[in-house]
Amino acid sequence: MKMIKTATYEEMSEATVNILLSHMSQEKRVNLSITAGNSPKKIYEMLIPKVKNKTYYEHVHYYNFDEVPVEGQAVGLTMSALNEAYFEPAAIQPANIHPMTTENYQAFPQEIADAGGLDLMLIGIGADGHFCANMPGTTRFHEAAYRIDLTQKVAEPWYEEVKKDLNTDCFVTLGAKSLMRVRHLVLIANGQGKAEILKQALNGPITPQIPASILQLHPNFTVITDAEAGALLKDK
Amino acid sequence: MKMIKTATYEEMSEATVNILLSHMSQEKRVNLSITAGNSPKKIYEMLIPKVKNKTYYEHVHYYNFDEVPVEGQAVGLTMSALNEAYFEPAAIQPANIHPMTTENYQAFPQEIADAGGLDLMLIGIGADGHFCANMPGTTRFHEAAYRIDLTQKVAEPWYEEVKKDLNTDCFVTLGAKSLMRVRHLVLIANGQGKAEILKQALNGPITPQIPASILQLHPNFTVITDAEAGALLKDK
Amino acid sequence: MKMIKTATYEEMSEATVNILLSHMSQEKRVNLSITAGNSPKKIYEMLIPKVKNKTYYEHVHYYNFDEVPVEGQAVGLTMSALNEAYFEPAAIQPANIHPMTTENYQAFPQEIADAGGLDLMLIGIGADGHFCANMPGTTRFHEAAYRIDLTQKVAEPWYEEVKKDLNTDCFVTLGAKSLMRVRHLVLIANGQGKAEILKQALNGPITPQIPASILQLHPNFTVITDAEAGALLKDK
Amino acid sequence: MKMIKTATYEEMSEATVNILLSHMSQEKRVNLSITAGNSPKKIYEMLIPKVKNKTYYEHVHYYNFDEVPVEGQAVGLTMSALNEAYFEPAAIQPANIHPMTTENYQAFPQEIADAGGLDLMLIGIGADGHFCANMPGTTRFHEAAYRIDLTQKVAEPWYEEVKKDLNTDCFVTLGAKSLMRVRHLVLIANGQGKAEILKQALNGPITPQIPASILQLHPNFTVITDAEAGALLKDK
């Protein structure tokens, strides 16, 4: 694990943008999987002007790592958020965007492998220790991709939010098995609210109750935080 | 996971020898970690004449992945077994053998990394699901290398054997974190006695009660069995 | 460069078979490019029984590295030779065989890249220093793949043979640029007749007059010879 | 080859800084070889504040790729220039700086290999097509590292400059063989004065008269230019 504790959210974002742009600058087809949410907002703000209409980034392809279908909507929550935050403002070509859905999630890991594998995945971490949609209580470390149906109530705080607020009865996600195959795994976290869970997930034992704890096993794993989120973490 | 179910112990051994020799045939310094025990006996029998006094394999280095110190003996159980089964008959130069001991185990993973990392590790699996010395009840997935002291009795079948029969009060082992960094992980298993545990470890969920189950996460993992050991395994 | 000087043609072939089988034993899709001709005859003899009808090698794909179209024949010389020597007796599925032809050669390098790149290429060397169809007098090191039309006579010994004996007026080949992208490049040579050219190609300066001399630049290059072919080569 | 034609020197420098910082952000020991000269001045300006006293970059090591000893000076031209432009202002620890000299150049490639190889090399190109100190008339593509003694006059424009102005009678450099082993090779060029040579070196045939032309063979080669330097280059 490579710890990069920066001072500010701005610095955290800048360090992450560097890594994203560098992977994009390779000769080969580059496959990225990036996260939606609040943590990366500044990252995409910085990234968009550097990527938009740059023909030398035309060989960069994007894959989402989870999806939450919403009743009556064609596009799920994750892709909607990525479209708004990055794909549309950066004018990424549809042919370079490869959505995982509740239909194709089982074949998705092989599709990624056949395209040369993921060069980089950018993820966040939830205050409950989840990564992608690997949630406490439903995580399946050994699966490359799986679907969770919310038919049977799970005794976890996130259940209500996902089931009710997000108005869905299932979600799909890549599992730890797929993340272990990513060449460079980057986790970003900012703010005091992430300090305690980062310590538990990255400096503690591996347990499905803290799904992100499994990521300690990744052979090329970079963690980038601001001062607050990194406050309780060992330097190495 | 790459499943190679061969018909016989002979074929399993031959398929493994091919992989070992191939890694040895690279231009770079090659770092291997190989297992002692019964399963690989035929492998070393086949390997020795191909390796002995071959100057073109002088760049191959060896690391043990665990060690059990024995009271009143300078060399531990693992290294003793490897010396007898392979290092001595193959005339491997002492400078190419890098022992992990109860003294240096904490620094060993970094020593391996500084030497370019392990290209291949050959392991077996115990009927109780252990790999290297990652035992049910004492496994620590998140550690690169760790030591288990047998001061406090562990409620596991293996405890008596290790403590009494092996006449030791501790052992050291590389952990799952180190194995995830090996470029090619190869597990061999033969005989009916391994069929059920292989099924549980490789086709079931990941759990510390079956330490080898974590190996499903390895990105380049080859499992080679004879017909009996592979009988209950999925083909992929 | 990794030099493996074995004693006999038999040993050279066996060492090469080991490397081929090992690459085939990886988890990922495996892409190989193999040579026709006399040197590998024993290799394919040994390989066929180990590969034929083995479901665990179904993920292995094959690409030819050159082709010589023959008037009035649907299949060129290279693919015809490979079909006879290996693909047919080993019962390789047509879907796993990817022929380069005079039609598709320009797109072929990208097709290979999109499939994950070549894991291993097995080549021989001509007494005139040619590799694949990179011939003295017409070599283009900087091309990934190119076509040579035999309209203008080339002042090289090979010209008559190719033009007349092979009854063709052109050929296509992968160039040095493509070979530099192969993860593991293996060159085999046996017999006294190859000793002098091997010395010039591998221990001398790089020159288009000895096309194979460029291969010295490959970062993971293994040369396997019998005693006669390796007689004049440095050990490293 | 990956072409990144940016609009300005500022943009070229920023794109290069991204790549440098990204490689530095890996978990493993990172080995870099960077260039002195005018082109990278802005790069180091941008890089210094991001690297200075950052403990998370302590695992980054530096190697020079050539050296020109100067009579009566302990440190050669290249290391002096790198010290002034980057190592000193960035407060890089001496233990992380590994100088190649006229004494150790023969052992230097192996020293680099034993340290895990170079992750990235940043180079420029001369108006005469030289890279590192691989000069027209004295280039040796097949050498990993070599020394040129200026005892016998070479009929090349650079001879006078090196011999007289630089007040030296020899220089050492890594050769193309070493560069082919670098995981990511990055060439920067800015200004009209580089446009013509870039075209010849990167879009023309490979010839020792234009040493940099050999770099077309590198499997992961990124070229970053400003608008002027890239004006005559193909986009791919």
Describe this structure in words.
Chains A, B, C, D: GO terms for molecular function: glucosamine-6-phosphate deaminase activity; isomerase activity. Chains A, B, C, D: InterPro entries: Glc/Gal-6P_isomerase (IPR006148), GlcN6P_deaminase-like (IPR052960), Glucosamine6P_isomerase (IPR004547), Glucosamine6P_isomerase_CS (IPR018321), NagB/RpiA_transferase-like (IPR037171). Chains A, B, C, D: Keywords: Carbohydrate metabolism, Isomerase. Chains A, B, C, D: This is 6-phosphogluconolactonase/Glucosamine-6-phosphate isomerase/deaminase. The structure is a homotetramer of 236-residue chains. With 236 residues, chain A is an alpha/beta fold. Chain A has one domain: Rossmann fold, CATH 3.40.50.1360. Helices cover 28% and strands 17% of the residues of chain A. The first copy, chain A, is built from 7 helices and 10 strands. In chain A, the strands form 2 sheets. A 7-stranded parallel β-sheet of chain A has the order 1-10-9-6-2-3-5, with helices on one face. In chain A, strands 4-8-7 form a 3-stranded antiparallel β-sheet. In chain A, helix 7 links the parallel strand 9 and strand 10. In chain A, helix 1 packs across helix 2. The longest helix of chain A has 16 residues. The first copy, chain A, is globular and about 50 Å long. Chains in contact: A-B, A-C, A-D, B-C, B-D, C-D. Chains A and D meet through strand 1, helix 1 and strand 10 of A and strand 1, helix 1 and strand 10 of D.
